[in-house]
Design goal:
The strands form two sheets. Strands 3, 4, 5, 6, 7, 8, 9 and 10 form an eight-stranded mixed sheet that branches. A two-stranded antiparallel ribbon has the order 1-2. The two termini are 31 Å apart. It is of the alpha+beta class and 299 residues long. Helix content is 38%, strand content 15%. The model has no long low-confidence stretch (mean pLDDT 91).
Length: 299
């Protein structure tokens, strides 16, 4: 994400609207974060597996040739990548097949390996269906493990395609919709690093890893600016939680918001998995989780 982080308007810095991913860097940093979280002992086996999976994604992204932006410009108010067209492309099917071959080298639970082998051996139409479901932000409850691998492969491909776009050309789409690929957010992050204006909030795409600026207090499901409350797992005497559930009383949804000023190393994907306890807390409420996270499907 190398573009300039702020624009100057009347002497006042204003946040850049969107940061595009540098795919190899995104997945490499995510793998490192997964490993750190696994070492802390919470969900350690699963986090360690996801660290290896992210490292595989990083390796594939680093080896791949850069991709140019689509020749056709999107219609006004539409994301730049056409998911429906991509779902039918031979390139994505080939990428999935290659990813499954390399994923076989990873250590994983027996059930995950069975799902991997079943997807790799499936008919072309079934593999295409898996791609289509992932690109529709849907994970069937009866085949979560197989779709985890399909989602991981598609994360690499969408991140590569998003990286080829022009960040300055991105404009807001609908509430909770990635301006690059049209995907849903996995979470949002309140930034505290030198790459942007401190305290700026960015929604983080679960698929292509693009980050786009959103109002600090806003539902990323329906776009409401009112009826927003926050919940967190709090231990007595502990510091203010870095990760909270942002709940919307207008649409009844919730999604995590992460504060880098409280924990600088937060990764929206890795820390979303590691903070599963917050999901369990929110299950006791009437709120329904918004966004998309294939690595948490089935939990």
């Amino acid at each position: 994400m190398s573009q300039q982080a702020t624009n100057i308007s009347g002497g006042v810095p204003t946040p850049v609207f969107a940061f595009l991913p540098v795919p190899a860097d995104v997945f490499s940093a995510r793998a490192a974060r997964f490993r750190k979280l696994a070492a802390e002992g919470l969900l350690a086996p699963y986090l360690a597996f996801l660290a290896d999976l992210s490292a595989l994604q990083a390796g594939i992204a680093a080896e791949a040739e850069p991709l140019a932006a689509p020749a056709t410009k999107p219609a006004c108010g539409m994301p730049h990548l056409d998911r429906a067209r991509l779902a039918q492309s031979p390139e994505l099917l080939a990428a999935l097949d290659a990813f499954l071959v390399r994923a076989r080298r990873l250590d994983m639970p027996a059930q995950a390996r069975l799902a991997l082998d079943a997807l790799a051996a499936a008919e072309e139409g079934e593999r295409r269906d898996a791609i289509t479901r992932v690109l529709s932000d849907e994970i069937p409850g009866d085949s979560v493990a197989a779709h985890l691998f399909a989602a991981a492969a598609m994360q690499v491909e969408l991140a590569r395609r998003a990286a080829g776009l022009e960040a300055d050309a991105l404009t807001p789409v609908a509430a909770g919709t990635c301006p690059a690929c049209g995907g849903k957010p996995v979470a949002s992050v309140v930034a505290a690093d030198l790459s942007t204006v401190e305290g700026t909030r960015y929604a983080c795409c679960a698929s292509c890893a693009t980050r786009w600026n959103e109002v600090r207090i806003k539902c990323l499901n329906c776009g409401s600016l009112k009826g927003i409350t926050y919940r967190a797992l709090e231990a007595e005497g502990a510091a203010e939680p870095a990760i909270k559930a942002e709940a919307c009383h207008e649409c009844g949804s919730w999604l995590k918001i992460m504060h880098q000023i409280r924990e600088a190393g937060l990764d929206p994907v890795a820390d979303d998995v590691a903070s599963l306890g917050l999901d369990l807390l929110m299950r006791e409420t009437d709120f329904i989780r918004a966004g998309f996270h294939p690595f948490l499907a089935g939990y």
